[in-house]
């Protein structure tokens, strides 16, 4: 799980943004509060519809000692790009993603994730995301293509039985 950041930077940052709401029962590996094994990332939305997250990724997600595993770095970027699309009121899934690992991402140290939509064309949405260290140095970049999907209807517990998430 990523530890929430409670620094002066975060306090100033939150004052300039709004929290990106997620459902309490959300089990998403990246942002789900109801997933005890996930990253539990907390995103904020800027006025220009960029998404930002300040986090500390714990050592449970390390590859080499002291550094975040490359697959988790890709997950951080994917989650950030997905939230950028959702900030436009859309539900979309990753079609294609590229990751450029610039520098190792330290575990147990504050990082900043930023994402935005760069282009829309029908159901296609192009995105980009970056990971920065506390000094603002670029650590990793991602670019992605997301395809808009129709949200699945909520199951009826009477006719469909219990949901997989209780």
What do these coordinates show?
This protein has 166 residues and is of the alpha+beta class. The protein has a single domain, classed as Thiol Ester Dehydrase, Chain A, CATH 3.10.129.10. Helix content is 17%, strand content 34%. Strands 1, 2, 3, 4, 5, 6, 7 and 8 form an eight-stranded antiparallel sheet that branches. It is globular and about 45 Å long. Mean pLDDT is 86; it is low at 161-166.
CATH arch. level architecture: Roll
CATH topology: Thiol Ester Dehydrase, Chain A
Supply the helix-strand structural class: alpha+beta
The tally of structural domains comes to 1
Gist?
The chain has helices at residues 8-15, 70-86, 157-160, and strands spanning 2-4, 18-19, 44-45, 51-57, 92-101, 110-121, 124-133, 138-148.
Topology, please?
Layout: E1 2-4, H1 8-15, E2 18-19, E3 44-45, E4 51-57, H2 70-86, E5 92-101, E6 110-121, E7 124-133, E8 138-148, H3 157-160
Which properties best describe this structure?
Thiol Ester Dehydrase, Chain A, 3 helices, 166 residues, 17% helix, alpha+beta, single chain, 8 strands
């Amino acid at each position: 799980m990523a530890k929430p950041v409670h620094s002066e930077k975060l306090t100033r940052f939150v004052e300039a943004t709004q929290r990106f709401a997620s459902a309490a029962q959300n089990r998403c590996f990246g942002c789900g509060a109801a997933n005890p094994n996930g990253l539990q990332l907390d995103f904020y939305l800027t006025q220009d519809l960029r998404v930002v997250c300040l986090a500390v990724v714990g050592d449970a997600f390390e590859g080499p000692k002291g550094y975040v595993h490359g697959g988790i770095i890709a997950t951080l970027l994917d989650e950030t790009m997905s939230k950028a699309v959702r900030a436009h009121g859309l539900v979309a899934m990753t079609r294609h993603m590229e990751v450029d690992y610039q520098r190792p991402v330290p575990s147990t140290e504050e990082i900043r994730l930023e994402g935005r939509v760069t282009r829309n064309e029908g159901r296609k949405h192009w995105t980009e995301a970056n990971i920065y260290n506390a000094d603002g140095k670029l650590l990793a970049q991602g670019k992605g293509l997301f395809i808009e999907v129709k949200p699945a209807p909520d199951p009826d517990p009477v006719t469909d039985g219990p949901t997989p998430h209780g």
